[in-house]
Design goal:
Layout (H helix, E strand, L loop, with lengths): L1 E3 L29 E9 L9 E6 L8 E4 L3 E8 L8 E3 L23 E7 L4 E6 L4 H4 L5 E7 L8 E10 L14 H5 L7 E4 L6 E3 L5 E8 L6 E6 L1 E8 L2 E8 L4 E3 L4 E8 L6 E6 L8
Length: about 290
């Protein structure tokens, strides 16, 4: 039995006397766990199409999953191996302002070849994500994003969990290259929509499951502008958290539900599909095919 998501092709400015400097030096002897932002190749389009040059954390898209316990202190050195400045924003979590990753406000963007230490406590359990906050309309769309999972002290009783990062890319079908970002239609309308949707950077992602298995699905929409309308087939369950915050009461999953850009949803689902059948997390809206 397979579970799959049918991916359709489709003022606070710095003062002269208080410059924003890289956060280093005092922590020079600390853990050197890093997140390197660098160019890499990934098979975004289906097999048979060319690979795509992406900008990724850990040379992949989505970037390296960061997982820690609630109450822990997170430390990551951002190492910038890109040809332009970048920064890291930790989306949705309560955080020290100095660690928020907004260039020109909380820090200067990290230049090519530079680095910056992000160090902060994790007060809340939940599903979050991190992404570039410099030229983010382009850098995030090139792949500079990844999941941040903060585990609660007492996790739900499930057989296993899966983190599913939903995204779309606008690719040239002939070369596999990411399309340019100078389209004024995108700026003047609702944002940049891709022509191929992926889960965890993979077209038509599949996972093996068993009938009656109970799963926790952590969904993260990292797309620039696409609202994913989703539907379960061969699965049944509840929405238990939205945007990192647990619901007061779990909500039965309706026939379809929406996941907006940057939104997260935690589901607990039971596999109800028969043996040798398929269960799906399906995109309802069907866009023009990638061809």
């Amino acid at each position: 039995m397979m579970i799959s998501r049918r991916s359709m092709l489709t003022g606070a400015a710095s003062m002269a006397t208080m410059p924003l400097l890289p956060h280093r030096g005092l922590s020079a002897g600390m853990d050197r766990e890093t997140l390197e932002a660098a160019l890499a190749k990934a098979q975004i389009a289906p097999e048979g199409y060319p690979q795509t040059e992406i900008w990724g954390f850990g040379s992949r898209v989505p970037g390296t999953e960061i997982r820690a316990r609630q109450g822990a202190r997170l430390r990551r050195w951002l190492v910038n191996s890109l040809p332009e400045p970048t920064s890291l924003h930790w989306h949705g979590i309560r955080i020290d302002n100095a660690m928020d990753g907004v260039p020109g406000v909380t820090q200067e963007a990290v230049p090519p070849g530079g680095e910056f230490l992000y160090e902060f406590d994790l007060p809340d359990a939940g599903t979050y994500w991190y992404h570039s906050h410099n030229q983010s309309y382009e850098q995030v769309a090139r792949g500079l994003q990844g999941p941040l999972i903060v585990e609660e002290a007492e996790a739900p009783d499930v057989d296993r969990e899966e983190v599913l990062v939903l995204d779309d890319f606008r690719l040239d079908p002939e070369t596999g290259a990411i399309a340019p970002f100078d389209n004024m239609m995108d700026f003047s309308h609702g944002g940049r929509l891709g022509n191929i949707a992926v889960t965890n950077g993979v077209f038509n992602k599949t996972l093996a499951v068993k009938q009656n298995e109970r799963l926790r699905l952590r969904l993260i929409n990292t797309a620039n502008a696409r609202i994913f309308e989703l539907q379960l087939q061969g699965l049944d369950g509840w929405i238990v958290a939205l945007d990192g915050m647990p619901l007061e009461m779990p909500q039965p999953i309706p026939e379809t539900f929406l996941l907006a850009p940057a939104q997260r949803a935690d589901l607990i689902v039971d596999v109800t599909a028969e043996d040798d059948a398929e269960a799906h997390l399906v995109r309802v809206e069907r866009d023009e095919a990638f061809s």
